[in-house]
Each structure stands twice: as structure tokens, then as C-alpha cells.
Predict the 3D structure of the following.
Amino acid sequence: MYKVKESIIVEGTYDKIKLSRFLDATIVPVGGFSVFKNKEKLEMIRRLAYETGIVIFTDSDSAGFKIRSYIKQGIPEQYVKHAYIPDIYGKEKRKREPGKEGLLGVEGIGEEILLDALIKAGCRIEGAPSLPKEREGITKADMYRLGLSGKNDSAKRRQMLLSELGLPKKLSPNMLLQVLNRLLTLEELSEIVQKNEDKKV
């Protein structure tokens, strides 16, 4: 069992069950879209954010991103971390049909990938390797210079980068910048972008 200091916010009960198998943590399921009408739960999440910090760990589909965006509103950034699972197509065992977008959610992803996502988010996890603290080396100007924003094919370049890094395709440019500063140096990012350019030639 890995002990996680932050409280983990997930979409549903099955996500909580999955994470509880290998994590010792406060895990709060929000009940999907019902969180939009549940002021008490939102207030509890805000309190947890100030007391322990929170990591939002929703699915990588559109619904997951809407829930993530809603939860983070009104909570100062320094108390919120974001864990992302890659876009993996499939169907959870308990379901008859795949989800609307065909992507596996937290409950359907392997433990190793889930733990890696939490590590990449910068969670404080006893017994797990940790990444360096967030780096401030990559800027919006760097993103522009590397063709990841502001150019005709920037969206395509970002998609290639997201795929290379195992991140969801729906990640916004601003959230991508935050993640990049946690995972890579500017030099490492430049190398990946160049490698992707070489593939296109």
C-alpha cells in the first residue's frame, strides 16, 4: 500500500474502490455530474484542499474534464494537483458497453499507470519514486517557438506530444504547460518536438 498525503477526488465509487486496493489515502467520489448540485460535497472538497491539498483524478473523457474544471473553481491553484490518465480505448469489466467516447476510466486502468499518473501530478506518496518539484523552465513563449501554440499546425503538434507523453488528448494548452513544467526540462521538450518533426518528414 502506498500512502498518499493529498486527498484524491474521483468521479465515482468504482474509481474509489480501484484506488483503495493499492493506496492508503482519503478518496472522495463526487458522484459524477451530481457534484454540480451538491454544495456540501464541494465545501468538503474545499476544506480538504486547505488541510491536505487535493489531487483531481477524473477520467480523460469530456465528462471527466467538465467535472475537473468545475471542482477546481474557487480553490487556489497551490492547493490543487491534477492527475491524468492516458487515452486508452476499451470497456470496464462491469459494463456491457464502452463509454460514450470509448475510453477507459480510472476504474479500468492498471494500477501501475494510475500510480504513475499520481507521481507525475507531484503527489507526496510514501514508498513511491517522486519527480522533482515543478520546474519553471518552459514558458508560453517556448511553446510558441516550438510550434506548440499560435501556429496553423499547433493543435496537431500538441496531439503528437500528448500521445508521446501518454496524456489525454483533451488537455488544454495551459494545463499542458503546467504538466510539461513538472515532467520535462526545456531541452527535453525540444528534443521530443524535434523527434516528432523528424517522424513527419
Q: What stands out?
A: The chain is about 45% helix and 10% strand. The helical segments are 13-20, 39-51, 62-72, 111-120, 140-145, 154-165, 173-183, 186-200. The two ends are 46 Å apart (CA to CA). The first helix runs from residue 13 to 20.
